[in-house]
């Protein structure tokens, strides 16, 4: 009677019921794969990234189909907000920009960059200082503290200097933050015989490798709601910087190799142990 009222054939009605009752196993497997890759990236991968990962696994699925399935499952990738940079109140003519955006370095332990960012943990802000070797974009030192003072920057520098075997002839570049312009930090550089370089006032592009590192960490790995405790933040940040970023994550600057792998190839070619 209902089919007659809507002028629909009874066979069409039964066919429609049959299609709805069937379970599409292939579709369910595809959804499960997308959800797994999305969760592995900590909700940072979009349809393009998931498509490339699936193709590496031998699954040829179009990007628009993946996007449609992600919309149906309510999976939305997290993209970082545009950063707001605070301009330094006073220019530092005594510390020139010696690096001058020459980010391509021919050997390790020639140029290091440093910067500080903030991390939400234990219902308050904590601060992360990182030292980056520009040769292969490898993290060589870092420190976490609840105070963004000069001691934090010094601790990250001390770790890098000891772990890299006390190298000589270094250039250390940073922005014009008060931690790096402080007397204590400059005295530590003088003790290690490290030459200092600073970005121009209010110019984030002069320290672009560090900004890119922090963007990768915050968009790919850091939880959107922060960490429950400082100890959890310490463990998670250590794993990301030392293991995932240095040893697992492919870097475009290194031709798709991780920073640690790029340095290993250089050491094998030059005979360095």
Automatic annotation (TrEMBL):
- Which parts form a coiled-coil structure per UniProt? none
Where in the numbering of this chain does the Integrase catalytic domain appear? 104-267
Cited Pfam families: HTH_21, rve
Q: Which domain of life is it from?
A: Bacteria
Q: Which InterPro entries match?
A: HTH-like_dom, Integrase_cat-core, RNaseH-like_sf, RNaseH_sf, Transpos_IS3, Transposase_IS3/IS150/IS904
Kindly provide the name given to this protein in its UniProt entry.
Transposase
């Amino acid at each position: 009677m209902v089919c007659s009222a809507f002028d629909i054939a009874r066979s069409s009605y039964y066919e429609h019921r049959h299609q709805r009752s069937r379970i599409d196993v292939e579709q369910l497997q595809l959804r499960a794969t997308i959800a797994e890759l999305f969760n592995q990236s900590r909700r940072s991968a979009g349809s393009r990234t998931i498509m490339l990962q699936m193709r590496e696994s031998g699954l040829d699925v179009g990007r628009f189909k993946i996007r449609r399935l992600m919309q149906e499952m309510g999976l939305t990738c997290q993209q970082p907000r545009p950063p707001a940079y605070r301009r330094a109140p006073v220019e530092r003519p005594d510390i020139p920009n010696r690096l001058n955006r020459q980010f391509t370095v021919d050997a390790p332990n020639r140029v290091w960059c440093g910067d500080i960012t903030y991390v939400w943990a234990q219902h308050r802000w904590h601060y992360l200082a990182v030292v980056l070797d520009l040769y292969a974009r490898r993290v060589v030192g870092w420190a976490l503290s609840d105070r963004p003072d000069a001691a934090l920057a010094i601790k990250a520098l001390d770790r890098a200097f000891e772990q890299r075997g006390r190298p000589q002839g270094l250039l250390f570049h940073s922005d014009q933050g008060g931690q790096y312009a402080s007397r204590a930090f400059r005295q530590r550089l003088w003790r290690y015989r490290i030459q200092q370089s600073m970005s121009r006032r209010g110019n984030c592009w002069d320290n672009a490798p560090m900004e890119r590192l922090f963007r990768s960490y915050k968009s790919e790995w850091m939880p959107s709601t922060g960490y429950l405790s400082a100890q959890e933040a310490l463990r998670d940040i250590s794993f990301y910087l030392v293991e995932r970023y240095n040893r697992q994550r492919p870097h475009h600057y290194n031709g798709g190799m991780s920073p640690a792998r790029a340095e290993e190839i250089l050491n094998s070619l030059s005979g360095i142990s």
